[in-house]
Write a structure and sequence with these properties.
Blueprint (H helix, E strand, L loop, with lengths): L3 H30 L3 E8 L16 E2 L5 E2 L18 H30 L6 E12 L3 H13 L5 H16 L5 E12 H16 L4 E7 L2 E4 L23 E10 L11 H12 L6 E9 L9 H7 L4 E2 L1
Parallel strand pairs: 1-6
Antiparallel strand pairs: 1-9, 2-3, 4-5, 4-8, 5-10, 6-7, 8-9
Helix pairs in contact: 3-4, 4-6
Organism: Myxacorys almedinensis A
Keywords: Membrane, Transmembrane, Transmembrane helix
InterPro entries: DUF1517, FLAP_modulator
């Protein structure tokens, strides 16, 4: 009969063995489902747009005495300086009348300018996400994204708009490789939209084992070509013979314009969604993130990776 001491020793050894087995199994599963290396291009911020107003032009000609004379410049009425309509009394009355009218006009112009300056500092803006999964045969897309990342000006709205246009064009050029896609868009107040945009970006970036190429706010960073890369064989025995390899591209956009993307159910919906994003002008673009995986040479994204990390994608 076992003593309590020997029983507890056996129990502890069994628990340790079970823990080791679980650790090995879960460790292999994590490796098998890791999305792999990723690239990133981004910039911009959710700041309230500034507005400037020019002073009213053609408002008239004013003199140091405070009088206001319609016509502007030197086109004031000369009859104000000569007696008419019965002499000085009539001229004085007319002068008072014009001064009062000028005062009222100036007050109206100031009130109008003040109402224009009273605008919404926390306007409603749009946050949108489009994801496209392509067959790995579209290798030229990865080359395009690498080139865009290395040359892009991500510190200006014009440069970000160019990145968005070039990325959407690269995707639109490969419709024959589209396999999966998804889209979502929502309107929110500026401050809340910024927080939502950052949440979506962090969620997508957390799926990468490493960011091996990034250009964010004009800061270009590039890791080694094989950093964090995992081949199919290294991702698990049963995956070594998996026939499918993919490229996954995510576009996150913040824009001042109202943006309503179509629900993705077909390749035509993907085309419409990408075209809508690509048409956003630089003066409407607030922030942009372009994320793609795999990025490093030799890295792959398997079908199991796609299903595990991107469950919202639909077959197109």
């Amino acid at each position: 009969m076992k003593t309590p001491k020997s029983f507890f020793k056996s129990l502890i050894r069994s628990l340790l063995a079970l823990g080791l087995v679980l650790t090995l199994i879960l460790g292999q599963a994590d490796g098998a489902l890791a999305a792999g290396t990723g690239g990133r291009i981004g910039g911009g911020s959710f700041r309230a747009p500034g507005r400037t107003f020019a002073p009213p032009s053609g408002g008239g000609y004013s003199r140091p005495g405070g009088g206001y004379y319609p016509g502007g410049g030197g086109g004031f009425f000369p009859f104000l300086y000569f007696p008419f309509f019965g002499g000085g009394g009539s001229l004085f009355t007319l002068f008072i009348f014009i001064s009062i009218a000028g005062f009222l006009l100036q007050s109206f112009q100031r009130a109008t300018a003040g109402s224009e300056l009273d605008y919404d500092s926390n306007p409603s803006v749009s946050v949108a996400k489009v994801q496209v999964g392509l067959l790995a045969q579209a290798r030229s897309l990865q080359t395009d994204l690498d080139r865009i990342a290395q040359r892009a000006d991500t510190d200006s709205s014009e440069g970000l708009a160019q990145v968005l246009q070039e990325t959407t064009l690269s995707l639109l050029r490969h419709p024959e490789y589209w396999v999966y896609a998804a889209s979502e868009s929502r309107q929110a107040r500026l401050q809340a939209a910024g927080a939502e945009f950052n949440r979506l970006a962090l969620s997508e970036r957390s799926k990468f084992t490493a960011e091996t190429l990034s250009n964010v706010n004009d800061q270009l960073k590039q890791g080694s070509k094989d950093s964090g890369a995992l081949t199919v064989a290294e991702k698990g025995g049963e995956l070594a013979e998996a026939p499918g390899e993919y490229i996954l591209v995510t576009l996150l956009v913040g824009t001042q314009s109202k943006l309503q993307l179509p629900a993705i159910n077909s390749s035509d919906d993907v085309k419409r969604a990408l075209s809508q994003l690509g048409s956003i002008s630089s003066d409407q673009l607030l922030a942009l993130e372009v994320l793609w995986t795999p990025q490093a040479e030799g890295d792959v994204l398997t079908r199991d990776d796609v299903l595990a990390e991107y469950p919202s994608l639909k077959l197109v």
